[in-house]
């Protein structure tokens, strides 16, 4: 079994400081190691090695690169699919899953073997969950837009009330903006 990294044993506040240092392009790994070791020495704790910091930085850079790549791919495909930018990755995953389900159904229909009932059931459940997730996302987006309209109406009518707007005009503005 692999030995636990000394970085993983750091207290949360010191780990956060290390992460901040590693994100700062002006700070080298050697400087980050020295600064963290100085803090650890003040607290009477064992130091971390340069190689442990290097391994940790490399792992974090890999994870960061994968996250950045997934965001870029999502942004590209969401733009092509015409969806709104909110929840890009989730919407992209829904679309990819739809395509995978469609491919699976096509393979099952083209096969000379009859489709296994379990496979059909699993596909049906996956499609149902996928559509439910899409509906939830759509409802959430609608709610967010509604709340934004209500906030805008409140701010506008409050400002206009201060300027002496009539109640009839306020009601008219509310009907236009939020349908009330």
Automatic annotation (TrEMBL):
InterPro entries linked: Phage_Mu_Gp27 (IPR021874)
Name of the protein in its database record: DUF3486 family protein
Superkingdom of source: Bacteria
């Amino acid at each position: 079994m692999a030995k636990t990294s000394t970085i993983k044993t750091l207290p949360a506040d010191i780990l956060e400081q290390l992460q901040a240092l590693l994100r700062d392009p002006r700070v080298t790994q050697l400087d980050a190691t020295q600064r963290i070791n100085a803090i650890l020495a003040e607290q009477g704790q064992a130091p971390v090695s340069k190689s442990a910091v290097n391994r940790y930085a490399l792992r974090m850079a890999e994870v960061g690169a994968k996250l950045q790549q997934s965001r870029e791919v999502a942004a590209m495909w969401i733009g092509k699919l015409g969806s709104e930018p909110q929840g890009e990755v989730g919407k992209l995953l829904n679309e990819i899953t739809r395509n995978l389900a469609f491919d699976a159904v096509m393979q099952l229909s083209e096969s000379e073997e009859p489709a296994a009932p379990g496979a059909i059931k699993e596909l049906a459940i996956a499609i149902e969950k996928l559509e439910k997730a899409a509906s939830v996302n759509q409802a959430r987006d609608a709610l967010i837009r509604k709340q934004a309209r209500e906030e805008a109406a409140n701010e506008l009518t409050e400002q206009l009330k201060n300027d002496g707007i009539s109640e009839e005009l306020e009601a008219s503005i509310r009907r236009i903006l939020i349908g009330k």
